[in-house]
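Q: Fold this one first, please.
A: Sequence and structure below.
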Amino acid sequence: MPGVRYLLDRFRPAGAPGPAGAAAVPADRHRSVADEVAPILAALAEVEAQCDRIRHQAREDAERRRAEAAGQARTAVARARGEAAAIRAAAAARIREDTAAELAQLAARTTAEADEVRRRSGRQLPQLVSMVVEQVRADLANLDGSAPDSHPPGRGGAAG
């Protein structure tokens, strides 16, 4: 809608004060500006259409690149999951090997300790057997009231 100033501009005198000049229709400046700019805007219509085509192509390219990136990401994730399984298997094998080595060391230490116990018991066994036999004879003697050596062999006494 035209402003008040525009309306007032239409009724201004065309010339300086004085005798009347030739009669004329007031100029429509807005119409003349639109007539001047119309060819320029018409020439820009092709540029505008080209800009729309470029934007459309850019959207398509962006969507294609997003789809490609998503595919690459899925491939990378699948590869990583496959590698993770192999890495877990290798770690498990390494742990089994370490555990087997520890068990072998433990078995060797246990065998050495058992051998030491056998040696000590082999040295102490005759003395311990002798002590047990003497204690049994003493307990039997206390039950019968007789001396430990008084029982003949074969009568329930301990054989010497």
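Q: Good. Now the second chain.
A: Here it is, same layout.
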Amino acid sequence: MTDDVKVWLSEVAPDALLADGFEDAILGTVKRVSQPEIVIYDREKCIEILMRDGSDREEAEEYFECNAAGAWVGDGTPGFLVRLPEQAK
């Protein structure tokens, strides 16, 4: 993550939590009514990062679902965007 992104996040979402190791998958933030702004990641990019680090697709998805998407760490817990299938766009 670049210093510019770190500064921007600290200004727009100071209480947002980050998912370790997935900095390259950050898309931005999500504003929610009466709740803190959170960081949003691209789920597919997170899977690709895990595969780049040596996991096959099945292992990467299982690890991601259990240890990232399935981890609640408070109100600042990040979100993970699941994109529409290509044919649905």
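Q: Anything worth noting on the second one?
A: Strands lie at 26-32, 35-42, 79-81.
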